[in-house]
Amino acid sequence: MEFFLSVCLGLGLSASCGFRVFLPMLLANVAAMNGWITPGEQFAWLTTWTAFAALLTATVLEISGYYIPFIDNLLDTIATPAAVIAGTLLTTSVIEIDSPILHWGLGLIIGGGTAGMVQIGTGLLRLLSSKTTGGIGNPVVSTAENVASFSLSGLAIFLPVIALVLVVFLILWLFKRLVSRKKSKS
C-alpha cells in the first residue's frame, strides 16, 4: 500500500510540474521539511533551507514571467524539458525501490512522461490563447495554471489517491482534445 501511495504522490506532483515547474517542487520541499512526506535518502537536499530559498526564488520568477507577454510563450518552450526533469526528480524522490534502474526508470516514465504530457497540453492552450486573443487572455490562462499546479500539488501531498484519479482524467481529457483537434485538421 505504501508503494501505491508513493506512486500516487509522485504522479500528482509530476503532473503539477506540467503546469508550473518549480511550484510543486517548492511545495514538496515545504512538505518534506514539515515531515508530511519523506523523500528518499538521495533526495535529502529537498528538506534543506537552501533548497527552500532556491525553489522559492525560482517559483516567484517563473510565476511572474508567465504574466509578461512574449516571455510567457518563451517560458513554455523552456518549461517542457524542465517539467520532464522536475517530474522525474519529484517522482523518483518519493518512490522507494531498491533497484536504481527500476527506480529512475519509473521516475522517468511515470513522472517525466506525465509532466511532459501536461506541459504540452498547457503549451497548446497558451498558443491557442495567444492566437485567439492576441495574448490578452494569457494572464487568465496563467492564473488557472497556477491554481491547478498549487491545488494538484496539495492534493498529491495530502490526498494522493484523489490526485491520481484527477491526473488520469486530465490525461484522458488532453488525449481527447488532441485527437479531436487532429481529426478536425484532417
Automatic annotation (TrEMBL):
Residues in DUF4126 domain copies: 7-175
Bilayer-crossing regions: 42-61, 73-95, 155-175
Presence of the UniProt keyword Transmembrane in the record: yes
Keywords associated with the record: Membrane, Transmembrane, Transmembrane helix
Superkingdom of this protein's organism: Bacteria
Name under which the protein is recorded: DUF4126 domain-containing protein
